[in-house]
UniProtKB/TrEMBL annotation:
Pfam families: CheB_methylest. This is protein-glutamate methylesterase. The keyword Amino-acid biosynthesis does not apply. Coiled coil: none annotated. The active site is at S10, H37, D130.
Amino acid sequence: MAKLAVIGFSAGGIPLAQQLLAALPTAYPLPVVLVTHLPPTAGSGLLPLFQSVSRLPVKLAFDKQAIAAGNVYIAPPDYHLLVERNGHFALSVDPPVKSVRPSVDVFLQSAAEVYEKHLIAVILSGANSDGADGMARVRATGGVTIVLDPLQAEFRIMPDAVIEATDVDYVASLDEIISLLLAVQDHP
């Protein structure tokens, strides 16, 4: 059974992520992690944007926090977010990867090592290739890889890079991505 869902995005991804979160029911069985590029000065600005549409509790991830089902976690600005083997988050101030921190690649690679085939990873819109290497790692460890159809992305560099980097399981519309995430409830 899937045990973690990750949604990575950058430019153009916030409204897509909002629609996706709005579709998840209060009894959603997985923790959901949102990783997006934020300037260090962003603070917790995304929190109210996602809290206003989500039926699940939305919070900023913090160091050593236990990852719990039925919650949405946002990677905090200016830190790489990772997963430890004990199911807790870790924050890192390692240098930016592909000019960004938090990095979608860093989180996906970390989560792939811990969750392997129990990970669902989604990439939405973005203006750089962050996420491509991480999705390749998710695929290599047996996780499910889902990418927004680049024709539906406001900025298609990120989804195109993922499709070029690995043989993804699904290239899908936003509605199809929502259906795939909701199917976890009925068909783990």
